[in-house]
Amino acid sequence: MVSDVLIVGAGPAGLAVGGALAMAGQPSVLFERGPSAGTAWHHHYARLHLHTVKELSALPGLPFPPDAPRYVPRQGVADYLAAYAAHYRLELRYGQAVTRIVRDGAGWQVHMVDGTAHRSHAIVLATGANATPVRPALPGETGFGGRILHSHAYRDASPFAGQRVLVVGMGNTGAEIALDLAEAGVATTVSVRSPINVVRRDVLGRPTQRTAMLLAKLPPAWGDRLGVWLRDLTVGDLTPLGLRTPALSPLRQLRETGRTPVIDLGTLDLIRAGRIAVRPGVRTLTPTGVQFTDGREEAFDALLLATGYRPAVQALFPDLALPVDARGLPREVVGTGDAAGLYFVGFELTRPGGLLNTIADQARTVARTLA
């Protein structure tokens, strides 16, 4: 039993809260189901870099090292998270998976997979918006002779050498995995079912992140109009590539749906060069490949499903209906009513500027509230 603030998850959100609390003189204990701080960052695909600049991606109180590149690579982020935990001497308990959280008098009780329980007046949920991979069932998949993997399992292109690979979905993960495969010489196709907003990571040396944050300060109609103009000017008409662009501006799409625009790192150039093929949605799998919604059939050796993730927050509360949206994301940072004493950090996907920037702000909010 402990009475300090309990933080569930030691990824960027949990560590940020722990650091902000430490600066306020408030002790905390972090429960992490994995073996290290920022466990997920040790397992992302190898080429991954932040899409946001390091100055706007650091957690409270500790900037990235001066020699870190503008867009920090995966291993650099993992090293930074470990250094952050050490810097604030955070108490992390590894291999501690939480099974349920229940009300206990004026506080809360956290039950662990090993049968132990811990009580506190304040519980911070920092398990992330991408806790559980979404793995849809595909028509005909039981008869398909190749491999089907969720993008969560992708590390690099080497296991797919000499194969024909279909990437299903072209969000940021799908676009970057397709780029990684094609650059390694793998025959790569991407299936894109819906219209997508695509923006450049940088325009004339200026990060799109900073531009988006500036546009968001304008009245929405003005910011949306300028966003569409900039998108069309820098990316152009994608129709000849087999891609559709939504009527929503990138900012409005983020604001209303929480869906981040695709940050292009070179995928469009390889599509234009014919090194990545574009197809519509999947109708059904066949023994040797895929039939698409336009009736075309093609052979593939492997499918990589870049079909996203979902949060796993509500499942931890068997006796409480959390204030969540249609996607299961908590609507508030500081719980109220029946959720008083609960705090939710790292689930806000609708703000421009990137999730790490949002996490840092939310961590400071939690620390101020608890102090």
From TrEMBL:
Cleavable signal peptide: none
Listed name of the protein? NAD(P)/FAD-dependent oxidoreductase
Task: Give the source's domain of life in one word.
Answer: Bacteria
Any Pfam family: Pyr_redox_3
Give the InterPro entries listed for this entry. Auxin_biosynth/cation_transpt, FAD/NAD-bd_sf, Flavin_mOase
PANTHER family under this entry? FLAVIN-BINDING MONOOXYGENASE-LIKE PROTEIN (AFU_ORTHOLOGUE AFUA_4G09220), FLAVIN-CONTAINING MONOOXYGENASE
GO molecular function terms here? flavin adenine dinucleotide binding; monooxygenase activity; NADP binding
Residues annotated as coiled-coil are: none
Q: Which controlled-vocabulary keywords does the entry list?
A: Oxidoreductase
The terms describing its cellular component in GO are: cytosol
